[in-house]
Amino acid sequence: MNIYDVSRRAGVSIATVSRVLNGNPNVSEKTRSKVLAVMDELEYTPNVFARGLGLGTMKTIGIMCSDSSDPYLAGAIYHLERQLRSHGYDSLLCCTGPSLENKRTYFELLLSKRVDAVILAGSKFVELIDKNNQYLMEAAKELPIMLVNGYLNSPGIYSTVCNDYEAMYSAAVRLINSGRRNILYLYTSHSYSGLNKVEGYKNALTDHNIPVRREYIHQCAKDLNESRKLIKKMSGLGLEFDAIMTSDDSLAVGAVKFAREMNIKIPEQLAVIGYNNSILSYCTNPEISSIDTKVEQLCTITVDTLMRVFDGGNVPAKTVIAAEFIQKHTTNFSI
Amino acid sequence: MNIYDVSRRAGVSIATVSRVLNGNPNVSEKTRSKVLAVMDELEYTPNVFARGLGLGTMKTIGIMCSDSSDPYLAGAIYHLERQLRSHGYDSLLCCTGPSLENKRTYFELLLSKRVDAVILAGSKFVELIDKNNQYLMEAAKELPIMLVNGYLNSPGIYSTVCNDYEAMYSAAVRLINSGRRNILYLYTSHSYSGLNKVEGYKNALTDHNIPVRREYIHQCAKDLNESRKLIKKMSGLGLEFDAIMTSDDSLAVGAVKFAREMNIKIPEQLAVIGYNNSILSYCTNPEISSIDTKVEQLCTITVDTLMRVFDGGNVPAKTVIAAEFIQKHTTNFSI
DNA sequence: TAATGTTCTGTAAGCGCTTACAATCTTATA
DNA sequence: TATAAGATTGTAAGCGCTTACAGAACATTA
Questions:
Q1: Chain Cα centroid distance, residue A164
Q2: Gap from B175 CA to C25 C1', in Å?
Q3: What is the mean pLDDT of residues B11-24?
Q4: Residue A40 and residue A238: Cα distance in Å, rounded?
């Protein structure tokens, strides 16, 4: 069942069939409807491979991420996929796994699939293709590269990010203004957004004449138990803190668990702030105040931007959206 | 940069290049290495579209699900993708969204992409392509259809499922044996696995001479607040219960929240059992005893089965794996 | 009615690959 | 050394589509 069958049955040439297929206006209404009728009758489905060969594209976007089962990334992938599909694009998913070791291999795999663009979801991931991103910049000459929550200033690379710095800064300021002085900061990685977040935290302290102390800033695996254990260890070493800020909700969950375990009252004795406002932050008791990074919006903008890139429009290399502080029950300042 | 360039540079015919490309053994070692060297030198990447056109496949599997950001499905998709990739297959993701309305359209979209197989992830989803699944059975004549957590007895359709019935039955028995008599049951949908679960619950009661009462069985949206509100409403109507079983962890989280709100002691006054043992069940306080449905194993088996189908092997139409009860702190029976 | 312009349709040459079949080269055997 | 068998390579015909270009059909105008 191919274009020849249709052309024969409809009594036209394959060129005409192809035109109908592609919505080419140079087809008389009469012919068009006849061809469409035949297609319908024969249940004809164009062969996407042949089409891809002819057109050089199959309208497919590669989506790369580390671990798509992370609540935040899972949301991002869902919304990216839906947005892309609404524009007629398919999504080829590619998860590098936790190691992130062979990111480049995976990236090349995606390229070899002739995708029309690659979306790199998750900032942790973006910076690490190679040392100075030479490789990524080179690749961007071939096809658009979209960074979700990452930034790289280079032609052909487009970023959509949250105002992580401001969000973290203002959250920290709120803590400070409500009297907290010893704020523990836990982060999962020093990615682009990771760095912005910690800067926001640091500057908030500095701007309020609170010393930034190294022992208050710790890296931690993205796992609630790891975070709980780390905090407990710190506490056991005599570190005193009245607030914990985290770069990810899962770490904040660990903080709440720690407080529970030690009979520390939240928020009276300890305030906790998560990040991403994922479902995790709603599961705990008390529910965790968190910073909503608007995943859906982020994804919508990413895809819209990509479509405009395809259309050859003039597109900003970086779009920043505003995160929103969602106060729940692990903080008690007035907003 | 195509196969001709390589053939010219290597001084062989395109057929030979193609043979090298496909690992055909009828190529002398000398020729093979020369061709490979040239490919390397020219950084040649075969055109997947042309290849797909010639071979009729692009080694791509369609993965369909409703909402890939659901913790359970997100895990499934992650593992499916990784497994498929380890076998050299790409994953084309397709999320129907919550409505599930146009599942069939999406399914056909996937077919039109000439995927080599379709994996339907999530049982909620499986049963609803059309009334009596005629459509799905018909489609299975064209390509293998893999059901993750769903079952349909028809040639070309392969299922991997958990022993949901047994898992729920034995969990209920444990509750009963530890003295619980009024067990509330909440489920999200009457899918294949959903029905099995509720049957397990019912039969456990019946087998222990406890009447199955309709007002103890309720459908609820997969949302922790919906579940909390529903339970609260039931309680307000005077319904008494000393245990809550759920078909999904998110509902169990709502149960814990309800107990918190009403100052009901868990597990003393109220036992709660979740399902899927997702990260949500670890976030609450107390952590929720849940039934681990072994997503990773489920996915590995699904993909292994699919590979054996491709190899033309004799493959069981249904594989059942054993769920495992994970006791945490919302139950207190001895195991 | 002839000339001109417009609209529509068909022909044929790709796109880059696979593979059946034919042709050639090696090697083993008599 | 001649020769058959086996190993290796090349030729050419697809796979099903797009599209430049040419040609036919039709409408418009003088």
A1: 13
A2: 79
A3: 95
A4: 75
Residue B80: closest C-alpha in chain A:
A95
CB nearest to B93's CB, from A58, A69, A81 = A81
Q: Which nucleotide is nearest to B6 (CA to C1')?
A: C16
Cβ pair A78:B91 closer than 8 A: no
CB B130 within 8 A of CB B101: no
The amino acid that residue A56 corresponds to is G
Q: How far is B33 from A15, CA to CA, in rounded Å?
A: 43
CB contacts of B50 in chain A (<8 Å) are 49, 53
Say whether the CB atom of A6 is under 7 angstroms from strand C. Answer: no
Which of A130-144, A218-232, A299-313, B320-334 comes out lowest in average pLDDT? A130-144
Q: What's the length of chain A?
A: 335
pLDDT digits (tens, 9 = 90+) for A222-232: 999 999 999 99
Binary contact (A49, B56; C-beta < 8 A) = yes
| Rounded CA separation A284/B207 (Å) | 36
Residue A195 pLDDT: 93
Q: What domains appear along chain A, each with residue ranges and CATH number?
A: 3-46 (1.10.260.40), 60-163+295-323 (3.40.50.2300), 164-293 (3.40.50.2300)
Biggest alpha carbon distance in chain B?
A: 87
Q: Do the beta carbons of residue A62 and residue A110 sit within 8 Å?
A: yes
pLDDT at A124: 64
In this structure, the dihedral spanned by the alpha carbons of residues A230, A232, A238 and A244, taken in order and rounded to 10 degrees, is 70
To the nearest whole Å, the CA of B86 is away from the closest chain A CA by: 11
State pLDDT tens for residues A8-56. Answer: 999 999 999 999 999 999 999 999 999 999 999 999 999 999 999 999 9
CA B25 to C1' D7 (Å) is 10
- Pick from A68, A69, A78: which is nearest to B95 by CB? A78
Q: Pull the structure tokens for residue B290.
A: 């849940």
Task: State the DSSP H helix or E strand holding residue B189, giving kind and residue range, or none if neither.
Answer: none
Instruction: Out of A50, A114, A282, name the one closest to residue B224 (CB).
Output: A282
Tell me which residue has tokens 């505003």.
A322
Backbone angles phi, psi at A119, to 5 degrees: -105, 120
Q: Which nucleotide is nearest to A56 (CA to C1')?
A: C15
